[in-house]
């Protein structure tokens, strides 16, 4: 992650997220912190990433999620050249199944 994003304010936000205990607390907190559209955009990107990991095509992803090809491309770039955050989360979710 870019160093200019690493601020005490972002640290405080992440600490707040790490303090959440369950899905219901996530709904409460993110419902206050994000607009509905921001939250839906984040969840859409996460779904796109899962589908890309599963080998789905851009067309399949766009049809199922409604994501633009630009969004799909950005998520794909993060999967291939990012910080491996998606991969880390996917591995942990798989371990919890």
From TrEMBL:
InterPro entries: Trp_repress, Trp_repressor/repl_initiator, TrpR-like_sf, YecD_YerC. Transmembrane segments: none annotated. It holds the Pfam family Trp_repressor. GO terms for molecular function: DNA-binding transcription factor activity; sequence-specific DNA binding. This is YerC/YecD family TrpR-related protein. It comes from Fusicatenibacter faecihominis.
């Amino acid at each position: 992650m870019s160093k200019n994003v690493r601020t005490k304010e972002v640290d405080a936000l992440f600490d707040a997220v790490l303090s959440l205990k369950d899905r219901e607390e996530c709904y409460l907190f993110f419902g206050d912190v994000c607009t509905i559209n921001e939250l839906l955009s984040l969840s859409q990107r996460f779904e796109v990433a899962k589908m890309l990991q599963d080998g789905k095509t851009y067309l399949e992803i766009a049809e199922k999620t409604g994501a633009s090809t630009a969004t799909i491309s950005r998520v794909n770039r993060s999967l291939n050249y990012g910080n491996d955050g998606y991969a880390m989360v996917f591995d942990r979710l798989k371990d919890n199944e």
